[in-house]
Amino acid sequence: MGRTPCCDKKDLKKGPWDPEEDETLINYINKHGHGSWRSLPKLAGLRRCGKSCRLRWTNYLRPDIKRGPFTVDEEKLVIQLHAILGNRWAAIASQLPGRTDNEIKNLWNTHLKKRLLCMGLDPLTHEPFTPCAPTTAPRSSPATRHMAQWESARLEAEARLSKESLFFNSPPPLSKPDPDFFLRLWNSQVGESFRKLNREAKTECPSPISQASSSTKCASASGVTFDVCPNIVGSSSSTPRSNRIDASFSSCSNESEEDSSDTAFQLLLDFPINNDMSFLEDVD
DNA sequence: AACCACTTCAACCGCTTTTGG
DNA sequence: CCCAAAAGCGGTTGAAGTGGT
């Protein structure tokens, strides 16, 4: 009864890998590819579970792994993507070449989460804490809210771009929002525009990460200190979303639908149509 | 120097999803 | 379509490292 173990646990080594094991695994995969992870340890002569081999390879031994501390830009990207995707570490990692889901998860749990807390933001929702929030009106889940925000922008984009008969390079979106759709959107010109808007918003009300004023200091994982916008710390639920760490979402918040659609629509109207299909050319 | 508290991150565990027969 | 195996994923753990007293 119960699940069959992923591998025969007896006589298997656990814990940290030693350099000899690493070398054995690298040599084997370079020679034969990983093939079936389950059978790899036996074939390679390792006393490890296949799962452990896969983890070791994908997280540490792969040649394209980027080691070293995260840059400020990478950290910002992780925060922004987390706002869209939530704890979908693998999906977030796919947007940061050379970084693994485990690494990003650790970064989030050890640095970024604390940083958001330090700034008075809820790491789950990326919104300012609202300790007296009414219990009668439960908040929508972050995923739902983000999906609604992106869906709003998507609908505007679809309306605009279908008019131009040039809707992305992907099939029409599903009626039920597909989480991966948000990644595609993020990578599309729409996503770029949101990021652009974010950058512009910072110049008006600098984001907590980049601004420098009389404020709370926090340390980033990359060793850079940053200042917390006084508007944000202790802000109430009436704080404009544009002041938050990810100003990009202010443009399509469903908390003020009028602003949302107006801004998003304006944003889309402002697309440089003559140039904006260049991203298609980059695709092989 | 010794101890303790705290932080970091590599690795494990168990669940879910995907794949193939 | 069903089922089992394999792969993938996210949460959690614990050893090692670091800083403070």
Would you identify the regions where 5 or more consecutive residues have pLDDT less than 50? 1-5, 132-144, 154-177, 205-219, 223-284
Order of helices and strands: HHHHHHHHHEEHH
Give a count of the beta strands, DSSP E runs of length 2 or more: 2
The helix/strand class is mainly alpha
Largest sheet: 2 strands, antiparallel
How many structural domains in the coordinates? Answer: 2
Measured on Cα atoms, how large is the radius of gyration?
Answer: 22 Å
Total number of helices:
11
Average pLDDT level: 62
Numbering strands along the chain, what is their spatial order in the largest sheet?
A: 1-2
Q: Estimate what percentage of residues fall within beta strands.
A: under 5%
Helix content: 40-55%
CA-CA gap between termini: 49 Å
Q: Tell the overall outline.
A: elongated
GO molecular function: DNA binding
Protein name: LATE MERISTEM IDENTITY2, myb domain protein 17
InterPro entries: Homeodomain-like_sf (IPR009057), Myb_dom (IPR017930), Myb_TF_plants (IPR015495), SANT/Myb (IPR001005)
Subcellular location: Nucleus
Characterization of the model:
By secondary structure, the chain is mostly helical. It has two domains: 43 residues, Arc Repressor Mutant, subunit A; 210 residues, no CATH class. It is built from eleven helices and two strands, in the order H-H-H-H-H-H-H-H-H-E-E-H-H. The protein has a two-stranded antiparallel ribbon. The longest helix is centred in the middle third of the chain and has 22 residues. It is elongated and about 55 Å long. The N terminus and C terminus are likely disordered. The chain binds a DNA duplex (21 and 21 nucleotides) through helix 3 and helix 6. It comes from Hibiscus trionum.
